[in-house]
Design a protein that fits this description.
The complex is a heterodimer of chains A (365) and B (317). With 365 residues, chain A is an alpha+beta fold. Chain A folds into 2 domains: 220 residues, 3-Layer(aba) Sandwich (Rossmann fold), CATH 3.40.50.300; 120 residues, Nucleic acid-binding proteins (OB fold (Dihydrolipoamide Acetyltransferase, E2P), Beta Barrel), CATH 2.40.50.140. Chain A is built from 8 helices and 20 strands. In chain A, strands 6-7-8-3-9-10 form a 6-stranded mixed β-sheet, sandwiched between helices. Chain A has a 5-stranded antiparallel β-sheet with strand order 15-19-16-17-18, with no helix packed on it. In chain A, strands 2-1-4-5 form a 4-stranded antiparallel β-sheet, covered by helices on one side. In chain A, a hairpin with a 2-residue loop joins strand 12 and strand 13. In chain A, helix 2 packs across helix 3. Chain B folds into 2 domains: 60 residues, no CATH class; 202 residues, MetI-like fold (Orthogonal Bundle). The chains are: A alpha+beta (365), B mainly alpha (317).
Chain lengths: 365, 317
């Protein structure tokens, strides 16, 4: 297994920059999710690490060795494709053994390792079946088998669960994570699905327009989003933004929303007057009749154990995740209390988070 | 599913439609087969039977046509024929019955062999080069790819025979006239545009991920092409090969113009049989019947691929 280091990686397709200046490190045995909407450059980044695409500039290091312009076949990495790319003219056994064949591994050894891998993935019973008749999950396992059979330096996966149906995807998320826990393979996993990324990854890199907006653990990214984009992309429903105009002084602990003062984590940098946004996760909003921040109930979604209540305020729509046992009538005037320790402040102009005591250390990628 | 009880399906044709379609197909097949059947029957008729009017459908079959096809004969006096020993073969016997003796083998086999060499040779070359070119066009960023492809296609925009005279002059100059190599090159050139276009369509359909997976699995691009792309392109390659072979096998105009002796193919040779001692229709029919066999066998062997080749583009895997 190996450490992957990507330095100032850039990829240009004509005038379009698919990836701009990415730098990150995946530690040995770590599971990194590259998360972002389609077209954000996450797959291009992955393909450059794999050697299927050559970067316009920048470096890729595998265990310190510069492999930027090495052929894919010379990098000793495994890649799981979105559509699995199982060779249709070979059966399961041959598919899994194909990478070993290229390395000149003796026949008996191939057989042994293919069977070992099949046992690990619990697909021993389908080894001699043709791949065309396999169900989605089994195809997925065969594709994984082909990747792990030769014990590569690292695994790259390009939305491997994208084509599975929702129910099965959850099963595979657990299987993948369990597999990772067992073999501790350095993994880069591309997905547009925040749930997959949150559930599996040790680290997440949120990408947008070819730029890594934030790099960190799922907890960091959720609790301390570095930009409005990240705050909006992660979480369902996403973070609420209460927009207001104001300046900030270094050390400030309150902001004025309209005329309502709201306590916030201590601000660490002065800010010119301008449009700001107060970010609050739905679960950090509570209803309190006495609270000065008022709004009118706009609608609610029942989710079983809790409900999402939308409240129209002077600063915009706020969604609150609250217990399901209280009924709200549309138009009802309510008071909102925000959990002061968990609030983020953003500069609406740049979209970046404003440093505060909540953000002790935020990695801006 | 019985049509009487179940609801009428929008996509599935009704039983009546199917029956009518079946009848039309059978009728069409019969109409197309009649000339072939006629040629086959004529090849077993005696010369008088072959030109009798009204045409004979019931007749006594004879191998005379085949004997005449494969031999050259000389007329002899009955006394001379009587002085010979017993006939060596069935053809000997038939020939003597016409007051002739076999003088030697005809040119049919050498011409037929020429056809085989030239048709299969040019088909192999066209498909081989076509596959490589199609793969290149399909997978790499070729500068001016669209223009190049259009140029390749444009070589088929006029009937090939339109350039017969320049080719004739060029071949005479290069010493390629009446050589098998010359004919192979010519047919390859004519077929290659079809091969590139057909095969590009087939290769475009094969997802790139297969080669990428193979390259990541430790193979070079050429190995990936051989081990992963080629096995999946076999259908397309087979279909393309049949189309190329049919053209090269049947081609008449260039063959007449550019071959006369050692490299002559069967199509220009068969009509010359007529001239040898009257209208020998059974011999012509025999030559044609045998000429049909290789293409028939090849097509039957690859019929599934051919079907997919024809319906190509209409059906997704």
């Amino acid at each position: 297994m190996a450490q992957i280091r990507v330095e100032n990686l850039r990829k240009q397709f004509g005038d379009f920059a698919a990836v701009e200046d990415s730098t990150f490190t995946v530690l040995d045995g770590e599971f990194l999710a590259l998360l972002g909407p389609s077209g954000c450059g996450k797959t291009t980044t992955l393909r450059m690490i794999a050697g299927l695409e050559l970067p316009t500039s920048g470096k890729i290091l595998l265990d310190g060795e510069d492999v930027t312009f090495n052929r894919a076949s010379a990098r000793d990495i495994a890649f799981v494709f979105q559509l699995f790319a199982l060779y249709p003219h070979m059966n399961v056994r041959k598919n899994i053994g194909f990478p070993l064949l290229s390395q000149g591994v003796p026949k008996a050894e191939i057989k042994k390792r293919v069977e070992e891998t099949a046992r690990l993935l619990q697909i021993s019973h389908i080894l001699d079946r043709s791949v065309s008749g396999l169900a989605g999950g089994d195809r997925q396992r065969v594709a994984l088998g082909r990747a792990i059979v030769r014990r590569p330096k690292c695994f790259l996966m390009d939305e491997p669960l994208g084509t599975l149906d929702a129910e099965f995807r959850e099963v595979m998320v657990h299987e993948l994570r369990e597999l990772h826990n067992r073999i501790h393979a350095t993994t880069v996993y591309v997905t547009h699905d925040q749930h997959e990324a949150m559930a599996m990854a040790d680290k997440i890199a949120v990408m947008n327009h070819g730029v890594i907006e934030q790099y960190g653990t799922p907890q960091e990214i959720y609790a301390r989003p570095a930009s409005m984009y990240v705050a909006d992309f992660i979480g369902s429903p996403p973070m609420n933004f209460l927009r207001f105009k104001s300046g900030l002084e270094n050390g400030a602990t309150t902001v004025e929303l309209g005329n309502v003062p709201v306590r916030v984590p201590q601000v660490y940098a002065a800010h010119e007057p301008g449009e700001l946004a107060l970010g609050v996760r739905p679960e950090h909003v509570r209803f309190s009749d006495a609270a000065p921040l008022r709004g009118a109930v706009y609608g609610s979604e029942y989710l079983g154990t809790n409900q999402i209540v939308s409240v129209e305020t002077a600063q915009g729509l706020v969604k609150a995740r609250v217990p399901a046992n209280r009924n709200f009538t549309i138009g009802e005037n309510v008071g909102l209390e925000l959990n002061s320790d968990k609030l983020s402040l953003f500069d609406c102009g740049s979209g970046k988070a404003i440093p505060s005591s909540l953000y002790v250390e935020v990695n801006h990628g | 599913m019985s049509s009487a009880t179940s609801a009428h399906s929008v996509v599935e044709p009704s039983a009546r439609t199917k029956r009518i379609a079946g009848i039309i197909v059978v009728l069409y097949a019969v109409i197309t087969m009649v000339p072939l059947a006629w040629i086959f029957m004529t090849s077993f008729k005696s010369p008088p039977d072959s030109i009798s009017y009204p045409p004979k459908v019931v007749f006594t079959p004879t191998l005379e046509g085949y004997c005449n096809l494969f031999t050259t004969r000389t007329r002899q006096t009955p006394e001379y024929i009587q002085s010979l020993g017993p006939p060596q073969s069935i053809c000997d016997e038939i020939t003597r019955g016409r007051n002739m003796v076999i003088a030697g083998p005809s040119n049919y086999w050498p011409r037929f062999t020429n056809s085989m060499v030239i048709a299969f040779g040019s088909t192999f070359l066209a498909v081989f080069l076509g596959t490589l070119a199609a793969y290149g066009f399909s997978r790499f960023r070729v500068p001016l790819a669209d223009d190049l492809l259009f140029f390749i296609l444009s070589t088929r925009m006029m009937p090939p025979i339109a350039v017969a005279i320049p080719i004739y002059l060029m071949y005479r100059e290069l010493g390629l006239s009446d050589t098998a190599l010359g004919m192979i090159l010519l047919y390859t050139a004519v077929n290659i545009s079809l091969a590139v276009w057909l095969l590009k369509g087939f290769i475009d359909e094969i997802p790139r991920e297969y080669e990428e997976a193979a390259m990541i699995d430790g193979y070079t691009r050429l190995q990936a092409f051989r081990k992963v792309v080629l096995p999946q392109a076999t259908t397309g390659i087979a279909a393309t090969a049949i189309f190329c072979l049919i053209f090269a096998w049947n081609e008449y105009a260039f063959a007449v113009l550019l071959t006369s002796g050692s490299a002559q193919t069967a199509p220009p040779f068969i009509p010359t049989i007529i001239g040898e001692g009257g209208m020998d229709w059974p011999a012509v029919a025999a030559g044609t019947t045998i000429f049909l066999v290789p293409i028939l066998v090849f097509t039957i062997l690859l019929r599934n691929q051919l079907l997919r080749g024809i319906t190509f583009g209409a059906v997704r895997k």
